[in-house]
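Q: Joint fold for the lines below.
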Amino acid sequence: MTADNTFFEWVYYIWQHYWPLFLVGARNTIIIALSGTIIGFFIGILIGIIRTIPIDHKTHPLLRTLYSVVNFILLSYIEVFRGTPMMCQAMVIFYGAAMVYGIHLDPIPAGIFIVSINTGAYMAEIVRGGILAVDKGQFEAAHSIGMTHTQTMAFIVLPQALRSILPATSNEFVINIKDTSVLSVISVTELFFNSNSVAGINYRYFEVFLITCIIYFIMTFTVTRLLRYLEVKLEGPSVYIIHGSQTVPEAQIRIVGKE
Amino acid sequence: MDKIIEVRHLRKVFGNNEVLKDINFSVSKGEVVCIIGASGSGKSTLLRCLNLLEYPTSGEILFHGVNILEQKMSNAVYRTKLGMVFQQFNLFNNLSVLDNCMVGQIKVLKKDKESARKTAMKYLELVGMVQYINAKPDQISGGQKQRVAIARALSMEPEALLFDEPTSALDPELVGEVLKVMKDLARSGMTMLVVTHEMGFAREVANRVVFMDAGVIVEENVPEVIFNNPANERTREFLRRILDQ
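A: Joint structure:
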C-alpha cells in the first residue's frame, strides 16, 4: 500500500489487516462501559436512598449528627467527581495508586473502577432527583397504611423512581461507551487506544478513525435501541382485561388503555 | 359510648401561622362525623394530624384512651388502625388495583397472599371495582380511583376511616358513585370522619357536623341543627355562602 492508493482501498486494507485489534478494543470498551454503568448505577441508588432519608425533630440527635457527617462525605464525593475531568481522575488514581501505595493496577480493572465511581457521582443525583420527583401523595398513602420509610421506598417509591430515571441511565451508558476513550491515557486497550496504535503503524489517521467512529456508533446505537426496548417492556401492557362476570370468568372484554 | 379517637388541646403551627388552635373533639365507635368549613380553616390539617401525616405542635391524641403522641404505640401500628382516603386518591402508580389493596396487608399486617387477596377482593366487590383488578391506576377514571382508594383503606380493616375531601378532585358526574359507596359504608356502621364540601352528604349521612373556622371548632351539633338553626353567626354566614352557589 502506498499513498497513491485511494481512500477506500486504505479503509479496506486497514480493516482487512487490523480488524482483530478493533474488535478487541470494542470488546474492552463495552466491558468497561457496561460494568462501570452497572456498578455506578448501584452506587447511585445507594447514595440516592441515603440522601433522601427523612430527618426530623423526632430523630435521635446522635443519629442526626451521624447523618450530617455521612451526607457531607457523600456530597463531597459527588461534587469532586462531577467537577473534575475523568481523564485527570484516571491519571491521579492510576499513577497515584502506584506512587503512593505501590499498587500497580491492571489497566482494565482500573478503568472499570474509574468509570464506576464517576458514573456513581452522576447517578447519585439522578436517583435523588427520581425519588424527589415521585408524588408526595405516594409517600403519604404508604405511610397512612402503616408502611415504614424503608417499606415505602422498597415497594412503592423506588420502583417508580427507577422507571423514570431509566432514560437518564441509558444516557449515562452511551456517554460511558464514548468516554472510555479517555482511559487511553492509562493505556487501557479500549477502542480508541487500539485505533491510535493502528493509525500510528500506517500513518493513516483519517481512515482509521472513520472506522473507529463507525464502530462507536454501532455500539451506542445498539445500546440505545436495547434500552428503549427495555423501557417499553417496563411500561407494562397498555391493555388490561376486564373480568366480565364472577360466574362466567371467561367472559372478558379487552380494553385498550393509553398508548 | 366507646370513644375511638379523642383530641385534647391540639395545636399545629406552621412557622408563625397557627393553623389549629386548641382543638377538642372526639369520635365514637360507629359515628359518622363531617367536618365542614371554608378553605384554609384547618379541616384537612386536623385530619392529617390525626393520622400523624402532620405532627401536632402540642396537645394530645388519644386512641382508645392512649395518647399516641407519647410513643406508647408505634406510629405505624396506629396508622393501620385508621384508614385514610385522600383528595388526590394517591393510589400506588406502580401497582395494579388488586395489588394496591394487598400490599399493605402483606407488608405491614404480614398476612399471607391468599388471605390478603380474599380480603382485598371482598372490599373491591363492595366498592364495585372487582372487574378492574388488573388495571393500573392511570387506566381508570377518577371516581374509580377513589373507590379503589376506599377499598385499599378498608383492606387494612381499620377501626375508623378518615376522608380528606374525597370528592373535591372529581368531575361532577363522578361524585355520585363515590358518595354512594361512602353512604353504604356509613350505613354498615363504619366509623367515619369526613372533611367535605358536600353539604347534601353531611346532612343526609352525618350523625354530627363540626364547623371549623380559622383553626377553631366554632360549632358542632347534629346536622338538623347545624343546617337549619345554627347557633353561631359565622356558621350561618358560611352556610349562606355555600348554599347560595
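Q: Anything notable?
A: Chain B has a mean pLDDT of 92. DSSP finds nine helices and ten strands in chain B.
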